[in-house]
Amino acid sequence: MDVDDSLSDQLDEQPEELDFAQKRVYAEDVYRGVYTEFFAWEQEECRRTIISLRTTNPKMLLSPRVSTSYRPSQVTPVEGAEKFYFDDLVDDSNSFQASCITIEAARWSPCPRYFSCTPISQSTQRDVVQDYMLPFVPYADDPVFNVFDYLENFSKFAWQEEFNDPDMEEIQNEAVRRLIFSPHKFTLQDVDDLGFFSLARITNSSGLLWDTTQRDPLIWPGAQFSNLDRLPTKWVVDTPDIFAVISKDINTFCPNLNCLHTFCSLHAGKADVPYVISDEASGAYQFTPIEPAKATETNESMKLSQVEPCGALCFKLQEFDSRENNLLESSPWSNPDDITMLEGILKLTPDTVPCDLALICRKPCFEVFIYRSRLLPDEKIQENISYNSPSPSEIVLPEFVSTSVLGFTPQFSPLSPCQHKGPCHEASGCHCYKEAHYCSRNCRCSLDCPIRWKGCKCGMRKKSSGHCETEKCPCRAAARECDPELCVKCDARGRHKKKKCLNNDIQKGRFQPIKITKGAYGNGAYAQCALAKGVIIGEYVGELISKESTSMAAFDVLYDHLGLNYIFDLDMAYVLDSAIFGNETRYLNHSEDANCCATVVNVNGVHRIVLVTTTSVAIAEELFLNYGDSYWTKDSPTES
């Protein structure tokens, strides 16, 4: 009888109460049994799988319709051509003589040397693990490569790092399952207290139970043919706290307009959205959580407001004496979830009138007012109002840093969004104000913050097919693309079909097609249509790497060996490397008389490199960049 059958037979029996020591002994026996059972099956399964890959010895099978007789070639032999003999291996008695036929083939040029890359449409953040952990040694068999100088920049290899053994995960998962559904009914906390299993559940997206669901389940008899129930793979906290629910999801959601999806690696920790490590056990990178909003409307001012009563039970029609404003005796709510829901809503919109809150909470208006007064007493609200900080009208605007000039790298890097108490000012510790940066859409300051970027108000022009095409547009003049949320007049969102904003090509992906073929040096990029001056031909994308990264020295060794590099300066803090990830813009060759240049544009708070024509370019003309003096290594490159 196996372990599952014995456990199933005991399910209806009264379990014996075990102390911790007895639970530990019982769990060790179950763990050991699953371990032995698994590897006994795995050994036989591996042997069977390997045998199934074996092939039989090949045999020569000749069709009876195939003739083995020699048939002379119809091609006329060249005089003086070399002759050779060949034997019929089927019948050793046959031997034939033939002349070598020489045919002159047309000459063809070999394909220029090039290095492939993974195509991407948007830059990606380089994993910080690669700064100290090396997955493999490149060019290990090349005696010219300076391998030791390259290895000095890393502390260890990737295979030296501990990893989660999928076999052990399967064994532990099955052992936990048998403990949970055993007659002794272990809890997940009991399993964690044992100390020899991985933590069963750390959060709703980490722990042993979660990890085993992130790969295909292993089909083996001990787990698949068991009569026990399956362990729950999902864990969602059923809470009425709407603030907690939103905070859980917002921690993994990238709010940058260039992304708007979860688990973004590009903006985490830099550019426009900071990250925090909120869970040391799982090491999960999460975006900055939202802070509860501060109430500025007192309960007394709500009573005196000019809002029309919502009905007979409206708070404005009720009389509240000082004792009832202690607010528990007047109208108690028996269900604590009702209070939790109201508290969560007030953390998001604390100044919402009780009339609206009553509809959301499905409670009488005056009762909602009573509990709001309890959760947000006027004394606490007065503290928020009387915070000693200058009003927005009193703030002296700083001299903002310049953004970019065509063809030059900006002398600043976008900051992470500010998050502080009070208006953006030096007194509040706002780093946007201190560094003379405009606040971005993801800053947690007020929407009417005086140092927020205001966008443009370019309207429709009758004599043009679009707008925002000249330096008269403040966004274009500041080397910024129009913001679809701010630049409403120019229709940056693209709602209208007739006339469109001409300063959002990067966001819309409106680039000119180019062809990659043999160029002046190796492969090159060619225009597939006539291009005017100032046309964006594409965005230079790659891996985003900090200039302070320790792997930059490793790149120097590697690119010295190759005689080329794909690194572009993005700003004062970051570079873009298109060696591993990139697109067709990496193939533009160098020329002192270049017809294109690279410029950095601020797109929704993130710097992005685009290649722009500096002169008119004819169709099928090769596109060139001036790499600059800092590009050249000891050996001249053979490919852009």
TrEMBL record:
Keywords: Methyltransferase, S-adenosyl-L-methionine, Transcription, Transcription regulation, Transferase. Signal peptide: none annotated. It catalyses: L-lysyl(27)-[histone H3] + 3 S-adenosyl-L-methionine = N(6),N(6),N(6)-trimethyl-L-lysyl(27)-[histone H3] + 3 S-adenosyl-L-homocysteine + 3 H(+). GO terms for biological process: heterochromatin formation; methylation. One of its GO terms (molecular function) is chromatin binding. This is Uncharacterized protein. Residues 504-628 form the SET domain. PROSITE patterns: CXC, SET. GO terms for cellular component: nucleus. Residues 398-507 form the CXC domain.
